[in-house]
């Protein structure tokens, strides 16, 4: 990708891995130097992966925090390779895990994990934290969570740590060439504006004005992410907020999606896409890639049987109407086959639904991915 004048530090162009064939044709000393480099930083030339956002992409950061927004007890993780809870709000793998598979990388560790040291840092890091939103007052009921600006500060700290391993120039190259995923916005509605009747934000803003405010704040977040070196950023839209089991349980009598929350998503997503397009035009490069999560979800919500699900209304794990009340716990009703359910718990897709979403990210048309899908991104970047 070309250099961009908006960056405070020079952009390192997205180069392909070093061709070492000529080195092997040289002396044994040269071979020794190549092998030494491989031992010091075997993944410095590989594509790192960074994740920012909320519970849809949190891989366990909240397990290290004093917060009520945790997925650290069974049956969470029942289908994870270890069969144990991992902090993911899933029965198994979440979207970042599956994306890591697709780009040929091992899963990124939570940034707060004590295991994220040494060469593991070169794979990337997951900074996401369940409960957060675009706004700092979103998710205050969860107490201690990593708000988005803190996630970005951790990203800056991460780069300082990696610089100590491979140097400043190689760190900048690693970050410039990385794939980045950010998922924000849903909580700003369900855990802020619509959390309670006459919430503070709903008294302050009409819904259209609130959406415009969110978009303006989100733009600041994305500009900061760009300033920190991100050059390929998948930005997911909000899903169909009114169709998740939690909202069906609270707001639906016959299983229809909650109209007001669907309206919120319908206002937010087009303005998000417009804002991303504007940023790309300003930068002069396709940095921000829009992922139409609303459309991806609505495919299997509207016709679950076409995707092998028995239902898209009832969560696999939960209690109350549609299994949509409260958290998933050992006392909850639990479906025997998670592959047959579009939703794992009251808010989050099952692993199988996540795989469908990632397949859309990977190969979807411009209806789902704009201006291009992940396969096209990887093909283009491999040629640079």
TrEMBL record:
Stored InterPro entries: GDSL, GDSL_Est/Lipase, SGNH_hydro_sf, SGNH_plant_lipase-like
Transmembrane portions of the chain: 22-40
Keywords: Hydrolase, Lipid degradation, Lipid metabolism, Membrane, Transmembrane, Transmembrane helix
One Pfam family this sequence matches: Lipase_GDSL
Lipid metabolism keyword on record: yes
Superkingdom of the source species: Eukaryota
Family listed: Belongs to the 'GDSL' lipolytic enzyme family.
Protein name: GDSL esterase/lipase
Organism: Vitis vinifera
């Amino acid at each position: 990708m070309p250099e961009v004048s908006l960056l405070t530090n020079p952009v390192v162009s997205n180069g392909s891995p070093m061709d070492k064939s000529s080195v092997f044709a040289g002396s044994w000393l040269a071979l020794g130097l190549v092998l030494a480099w491989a031992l010091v930083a075997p993944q410095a030339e590989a594509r790192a992966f960074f994740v920012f956002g909320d519970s849809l992409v949190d891989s366990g950061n909240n397990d290290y925090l004093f917060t009520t927004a945790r997925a650290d007890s069974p049956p969470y993780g029942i289908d994870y390779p270890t069969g144990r809870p991992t902090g993911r709000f899933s029965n198994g793998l979440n979207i970042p895990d599956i994306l890591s598979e697709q780009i040929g990388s091992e899963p990124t560790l939570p940034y707060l994990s004590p295991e994220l040291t040494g060469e593991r840092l070169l794979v990337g890091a997951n900074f996401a934290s369940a409960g957060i939103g675009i706004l700092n007052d979103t998710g205050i009921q969860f107490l201690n969570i990593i708000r988005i600006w803190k996630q970005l500060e951790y990203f800056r700290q991460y780069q300082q740590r990696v610089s100590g391993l491979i140097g400043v120039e190689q760190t900048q190259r690693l970050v410039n060439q990385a794939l980045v995923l950010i998922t924000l916005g849903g909580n700003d509605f369900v855990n802020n504006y619509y959390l309670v009747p006459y919430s503070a934000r709903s008294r302050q803003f009409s819904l259209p004005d609130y959406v415009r405010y969110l978009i303006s704040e989100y733009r600041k977040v994305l500009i900061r992410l760009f300033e920190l070196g991100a050059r390929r950023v998948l930005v997911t839209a909000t899903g169909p907020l009114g169709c998740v089991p939690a909202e069906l349980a609270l707001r639906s009598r016959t299983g229809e999606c909650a109209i007001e929350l669907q309206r919120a998503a319908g206002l937010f997503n087009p303005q998000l896409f417009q804002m991303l397009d504007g940023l790309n035009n300003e930068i002069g490069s396709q940095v921000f890639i829009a992922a139409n999560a609303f459309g991806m979800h609505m495919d299997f919500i509207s016709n679950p049987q076409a995707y092998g699900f028995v239902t898209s209304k009832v969560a696999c794990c939960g209690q109350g109407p549609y299994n949509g009340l409260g958290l998933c716990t050992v006392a909850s009703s639990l479906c025997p086959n998670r592959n047959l359910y579009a939703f794992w718990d009251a808010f989050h897709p099952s692993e199988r639904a996540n795989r469908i979403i990632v397949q859309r990210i990977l190969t979807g048309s411009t209806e789902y991915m704009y201006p291009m899908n992940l396969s096209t991104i990887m093909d283009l970047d491999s040629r640079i």
